[in-house]
Amino acid sequence: MGDGMNSDEGPQAGRPLVVLVGAPGAGKSTVGRRVAEQLGVAFVDTDLLIEASSAMSVSDIFVTLGEPEFRRREEEAVASALLSQRGVVALGGGAVLSAATRSRLSKHRVVWLRVSMSEAATRVGMNTARPLLLGNVRTKLSSLLDERTPLYDEVSSAVVDTSDRKLREVINDVLALAIAPADRADRADDTQAVEDAMDV
After folding, report:
1. Which of 13, 78, 162, 193 is deepest in the core (most CB within 10 A)?
2. What is the model's pTM?
3. Residue-range domain boundaries for the chain
């Protein structure tokens, strides 16, 4: 995993409490929204920011303008969100493909919602709103995971597995990481650290 925030930094007023990354089907939007509700802060999905500023859906941008243009707009949306948002931010699955975005994420608390290929395929199904997954969903998901997993690992300061787990368990883990001191959040693979941070 990447170093994430420096160990002497805690969540600050000028940055998101937590940034969520992960593959399609990992549950970034669902988990992020619920975590934000629990904390009483704003939730931002950068895909929705892109759609709002473009007055087009993500799939329409891909079809009419192409993936490079979508990635350019995505990089801008992520940069804006990281500068202006104070709550929970969920990034699109491919946002980590941008080197500039990966560099920006090094200054933030980033939680990778990790999901297995089979679980992601089950959750995504035949959702035609995901243009990169049209066709053979399993094959394309496998390819995406092969390409992006090292990048999720690079940018994340914490990992929460979502496969074969209840939504409430995942939300609780992310909540604990969002409010924990940075050095505790950076040891997210340590189950005891998560439990201690939640004080349960």
Report:
1. 162
2. 0.81
3. 18-198
